[in-house]
Amino acid sequence: MTPPRTGASLCRLRALGVRYAGAAHPALGPIDFDIAAGERLAIIGESGSGKSTLARAIAGLLPAGAELTGTLDWPAAGRRPTPGRDLGYVFQDPGQSLNPVLTIGEQVAEGARHHLGLSGRAARAHAADLLTQVHLPDPGRLLAAYPHQISGGQRQRVAIAAAIAAGPAILIADEVTSALDTTVQAAIVALLDALTRDRGMTLIFVTHDMALAAQLAGRIAVMGAGRLVEAGRAGDILQRPISTEARRLLNAHIDLDTPPLIGEAAP
Ligand SMILES: Nc1ncnc2c1ncn2[C@@H]1O[C@H](COP(=O)(O)OP(=O)(O)OP(=O)(O)O)[C@@H](O)[C@H]1O
Ligand code: NI
User: Fold this and answer.
1) 187 CA distance to ligand 1 centroid (A)?
2) Count of structural domains, the chain
3) Nearest ligand atom owner, CA of 43
């Protein structure tokens, strides 16, 4: 897919709704929203608010049997992006992104071989290059390793390398840092920031952390109970949140930043 002009409407949601198979109520919607080409959007909300459902609907990665209502158009491209080629997706748990019985080399090279038509040898070289780009040490050795042989933070770097292997124009990262400790979190966020900026990719970053959202995104969409309750520039939402959901997420973050009482901090 040729990357559309920056700022053009990339994805247009109109009365978009999702109902999972057998569910009594829709998990999402109706949602009206536009995503601009090249923008950096954070989708935030509390657990169960529908963030992943929205992200998966955009990616075309909803589970079988999920029913979509309303419309989801791709005006600039004229067709939906192909996951893996036009759109990369990184999950919260690298176990969902990575296959435990394939080597890291095999899975990072797979996207390049499949979508770019590279030979096995060229795809392997490309995979080693990608591992370097996500700042993993000793790519030559890592190519032959299995996911369980590296740390959680390293696995997330591998998942990011695999997601961008075919050079997609869009990257969706769904809670990719929530299983990691704070310093590793910051490094992964910095990596996503640099990679997507360098490549002019559209970034959709799902999180329940307002500070991470504001750090990475230009615009924030706030979800609550399956609906979009507020959307706007990151700075505006941080300084003047309107919805109770956005206020709650901000307060939650201030609480986290409060230093623990001396008694609690003692070992
Ligand atoms: N595969 C599924 N089948 C049925 N219901 C689902 C499925 N996935 C999610 N749901 C339901 O849809 C609603 C929205 O869930 P979703 O995972 O989108 O929320 P979320 O904001 O991503 O939450 P979290 O922060 O916990 O990841 C919830 O009520 C959830 O139970
Ligand atoms: Ni989720």
Assistant:
1) 27
2) 1
3) 1
